[in-house]
Design the sequence.
């Protein structure tokens, strides 16, 4: 379980990125983090794993306050948090298998990581994860030979190789086509359910989030302005989160309508 209590981030310029953010994510629940650009979504995710230092508040993973840790203690606890990045963050010249095994770097001695000689149980775990994400046949391909969807699956397998207790997922579908986006979101939701993993997904695609996540948290100017079920996110709340907009699907303009077939067109169809 993840618990945030009064999490705040103020930069030296005086700009406030997060203001008293508090919520809890129980095991197995995926929370979609939505809001306009600059609302604090990425800052929130990075404050949880201390890639960005919070100004105030607590981040509790289980019963351990991550904000009080430093040095070896923080490195040990970060192993409990799997991070999946928008731009995949793979080592392009390494194979798929080697990229997945890099998720075990926090658990092996330096000499093993330098020579990329991992214990047999880590290799077996990596094969099982590649099977789970549908990439067994691509294990020996270089990462730069993969499609965007395949790269994201490698990133998921690498995060799971850590055997995490929490997943932080930053815009997992931003660079993907609609079909692949749904496949990736379905894979993430299934994996979190199977492993009883809590997860926070920073996502801009609100319809996609509403389709797959169990709970949405809306941020505006660093504050939580919505926390509830996807079906409770109506037009009024979307306007409150994002600002004034027409949230109805756009009707096709007259210029977009197909032209009336001409006699020549009709003859071509039957010729």
Sequence:
């Amino acid at each position: 379980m993840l618990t945030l209590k009064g999490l705040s981030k103020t930069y030296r310029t005086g700009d406030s990125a997060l203001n008293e953010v508090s919520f809890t994510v129980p095991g197995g629940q995926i929370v979609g983090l939505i809001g306009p650009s600059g609302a604090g979504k990425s800052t929130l995710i990075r404050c949880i794993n201390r890639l960005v230092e919070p100004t105030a508040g607590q981040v509790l993973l289980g019963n351990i306050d991550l904000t009080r840790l430093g040095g070896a203690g923080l490195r040990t606890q970060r192993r409990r948090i799997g991070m999946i990045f928008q731009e995949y963050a793979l080592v392009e010249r390494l194979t798929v298998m080697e990229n997945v095994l890099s998720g075990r770097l926090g658990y092996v001695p330096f000499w093993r990581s330098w020579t990329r000689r991992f214990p047999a149980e880590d290799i077996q775990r990596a094969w099982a994860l590649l099977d789970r994400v549908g990439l067994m046949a691509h294990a020996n391909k270089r990462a730069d030979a993969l499609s965007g969807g395949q790269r994201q699956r490698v990133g998921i397998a690498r995060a799971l190789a850590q055997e995490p207790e929490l997943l932080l997922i930053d815009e997992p579908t931003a660079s993907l086509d609609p079909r692949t986006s749904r496949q990736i979101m379905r894979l993430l939701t299934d994996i979190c359910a199977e492993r009883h993993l809590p997860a926070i997904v920073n996502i801009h695609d609100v319809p996609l989030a509403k389709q797959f996540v169990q709970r949405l948290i809306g941020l505006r100017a660093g504050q939580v302005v919505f926390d509830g079920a996807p079906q409770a996110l109506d037009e009024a709340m979307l306007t409150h989160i994002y600002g004034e907009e027409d949230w109805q699907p756009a009707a096709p303009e007259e210029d977009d309508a197909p032209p009336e077939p001409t006699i020549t067109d009709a003859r071509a169809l039957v010729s």
Notes: The first strand starts at residue 2 and ends at 10. The two ends are 67 Å apart (CA to CA).
